[in-house]
Write a structure and sequence with these properties.
The chain contains seven helices and six strands, in the order βαβαβαβααβαβα.
């Protein structure tokens, strides 16, 4: 398999970067792929999740794996140089409202086209409000106008489902009992990511 580097990034905090990193990692493991997970964020939320799973008897990260998933510290400094620049795919979660859009889209418009081409935005913690629907559409329009980057399907605001993943578990998220909507939503998003990376 060709080596793949996936960076989960974004200048805006509190958008679910670590939760998305964990969910993507669970998906890759569910699909019988070995992964190396790197937590480059000083908060070390993802590393704490990896450690909790390990303590329960389930190993997440394999240093020799061909697929590397990085939870970055953001889009500046060493993370930009070491991971963003070399990534095959840059996944940028965002809450689709004005404050997040200004930061996230502002960053997107400021980087080189070679970086923009690798960006996949993920509307995250989405609730069924007119403001958020408008936010997603605005992001789609900007990406379309730029002629580069992409918007993937998103994840709904499910406080009882997604954040608790970071508590660690002996069972893979996708092997646990998921309601139909959660399974459809997550499988749609991660299948889109598989296609981009040529992992189908």
């Amino acid at each position: 398999m060709t080596k793949k580097l996936i960076a989960i990034s974004g200048d805006k905090g509190g958008v679910g970067k670590s939760s998305l990193t964990a969910l993507l990692s669970e998906w890759m493991l569910y699909r019988d792929r070995q992964i190396k997970v790197v937590d480059a964020d000083p908060n070390q939320t993802t590393q704490t999740w990896i450690d909790k799973c390990s303590e329960m008897g389930r190993e997440i990260s394999d240093r020799k794996a061909d697929i590397t998933i990085v939870d970055t510290a953001g889009t500046s400094g060493s993370s930009l140089i070491k991971y963003i620049k070399n990534a095959d795919l840059i996944i940028v979660p965002f809450k689709p409202h004005v404050a997040d859009l200004e930061v996230v889209i502002g960053w997107f418009l400021s980087v080189k086209t070679s970086i923009q081409e690798k960006v996949a935005f993920v509307p995250n913690m989405v609730s069924k409000t007119r403001e958020q629907a408008t936010g997603v559409e605005e992001a789609r329009k900007i990406v379309k106008d730029e002629g580069t980057g992409r918007i993937l399907s998103g994840l709904a605001e499910r406080k009882a489902v997604y954040p608790p993943v970071l508590n660690g578990s002996l069972t893979n998220f996708f092997e646990s009992k998921l309601d139909r909507n959660t399974r459809q939503e997550t499988e749609l998003l991660f299948t889109e990511i598989d296609k981009i990376l040529g992992l189908e």
